[in-house]
Amino acid sequence: MSLKVLSALDVARIQLYHFKAIIIAGMGLFTDAYDLFCIPPIIKLIGRIYYVEEKQYRTTPTVVVSALVAIALLGTVVGQLVFGRLGDRIGRRSVYGLSLGIMVLSSIACGFSICRTRNCVLVSLGFFRFLLGVGIGGDYPLSATIMSEFANKKTRGAFIAAVFSMQGFGILVSSVVTMVVCKIFEATSHVSNGQIPEQVDIAWRLILMVGAIPAAMTYYWRMMMPETARYTALVEQNVLQAAMDMEKVLDIPMSQIAEDSLLPSYPPPSYPLLSKRFFRRHGYDLFSCAASWFLVDVVFYSSNLFQSQTYHRFIKDQPDVNAYELAFRVARFQAILAICSTIPGYWVTVYFIDRIGRVKIQMIGFFFMAMVYFAIGIPYKYFWSEKIGIGFITLYALTFFFCNFGPNTTTFIVPAELFPARFRSTCHGISGAVGKVGAIIGTVGFLWASRIPNNNGKPDPVRMTVALVFLGVVCLVGLAVTYFFTRETMGRSLEDNENDDE
User: Fold this and answer.
1) CA–CA separation, 315 vs 325, rounded Å?
2) Is the pTM of this model over 0.70?
3) Maximum alpha-carbon separation in the chain
4) Helix, strand, or coil here: 197?
5) What is the rounded distance in angstroms from the CA atom of residue 86 to the CA atom of residue 109?
């Protein structure tokens, strides 16, 4: 027997509140991408400030860059596990504002970073980025679950993908903010080539703090969102309250969603999380979601760090280029990549996700990513290591396009559709946490691939070849996991997908 309020949600027409929910839920993902992609140009500024020896600048060591990325990812693992579980235990809405609050405060704190000596700045920046990661991690399962439980079954995938696509705009905005800040400071500081003015130390802090503004602007609306009908009806067993909440935000008359009887139609199963019965019913799906997310994040975060080895051929990182201009060039490169590759990948997924399905898109993405990595990696030692040009950049951009028109988006969507309401947020958090472990492995792997330079000061071509081919193999493993283990969820209600019957 189906509850009327849930059936009404499954067939509800697209309304203004759906788009409002996309913006509200997507701001956490926006902040995630902003803080990840503002780091490369900031690292250039920090290198010019804190890695100067005998008036000769040095770039920030790769080990420091990887550590700053990894510490935020470690916080994300913690946030996904903790907030994912809290979302199922005390409600999505109850902890939704808390995760956003942590993101806002830690973004601001990253900008202050207490002191101005190198070791102190890096330690404090790492600590606050860990807290930022906790808030971002908490936002992943909550945003995906809330959007999936509000959406209708016909366009649910597109709505969740649209939430996730806010990452693309976060990348673009972080680049634009960096370029604007750098140009303003450069114009007002009257610097000459090679100089390192004290205002540079203010510029990178300001860039970090600006990222908190969009998230803070949505805090009020997050707190005003009602609890999802599925959590209220299926977990709290308050069907009447679920109907009342949905009447307030969606254009659905109470007569269509009120039950004839107030007795719940979906008594919750008695088995606990991670019990034998849980694994018998949901272990297959949990493995599929976690393994796919793990594999794509190994590739995705390695690719992001690989940008530093790509754009240094184009930005002309030389001593006579001032710090502002150097950071501007890095941000400009990222903005072009986002406009031409990353953002289109997200929105092609939004268009096709409810037409061809999650499984096919995930398989398409993994397959073409593998082919591109082989095309880059196999000839890297003999061709790309010395001749990086437009052909290499085009192939490199395609990895981001097919990552987003593929597993980077679908791994965010599928865990929010497969599991019962009382485990949904937790299982999404577990899947995402396993994925971020893969991301940490990716950052460490990239450190291995790029740490030892050759005589020209460039990454060792043999190591880079091995690393890039390995990423292609990882994508093929992801393709196999998707084909053999991932269930299609397109066009089905969440209750049909959850596979929670005997």
Assistant:
1) 9
2) yes
3) 81
4) coil
5) 25
- Residue-level pLDDT at 502: 44
* Domain-wise residue ranges, the chain: 4-256+273-493
Confidence bin at 455 (pLDDT 50/70/90): very low
The residue with tokens 């289109």 is 344
Reported as type and span, the H/E element at residue 115 is none
**Is there a contact between 434 and 377 (Cβ–Cβ < 8 Å)?**
no
- pLDDT tens digits, one per residue of 318-339: 656 788 888 898 899 899 999 9
Which pLDDT score is estimated for 385? 62
Q: Do residues 468 and 370 touch, judged by C-beta distance below 8 A?
A: no
Tokens representing residue 307 in the block: 């940008």
Cα gap 471→423, rounded to integer Å: 32
Average pLDDT, the chain: 85
3-class SS of residue 70: helix
Q: What is the pLDDT of residues 339-367, one digit of tens each?
A: 999 999 999 999 999 999 999 999 999 99
CA 351/CA 409 separation, integer angstroms: 12
- Tokens representing 404 are 């987003």
Distance CA(466)–CA(441), nearest Å, equals 15
**Distance, CA of 472 to CA of 474 (rounded, Å):** 5
For residue 186, give every residue at least 6 positions away whose Cβ sits within 8 Å of its Cβ, in sequence order, or none: 322, 324, 325, 328
Residue 467 confidence class, pLDDT cut points 50, 70, 90: confident
Residue 315 has pLDDT above 70, yes or no: no
Query: Which one of 3.40.50.2300, 1.10.10.10, 1.20.810.10, 1.20.1250.20 gives the CATH number of domain 4-256+273-493?
Result: 1.20.1250.20
**Confidence (pLDDT) at 465:** 84
**DSSP symbols for 254-273:** HHHH--SS-S-SSPPPSPPT
Q: Which of 166, 165, 199, 175 is nearest to 185 (CA)?
A: 199
Q: Coil, strand, or helix at residue 53?
A: strand
461 Rama class: left (phi>0) / alpha (psi -120 to 50) / beta: alpha
- Rounded-to-10 torsion of CA 152, 154, 158, 159: -10
In sequence order, what are the residues at sequence separation of 6 or more whose Cβ sits closer than 8 angstroms to the Cβ of residue 230?
6, 9, 149, 242, 421, 494
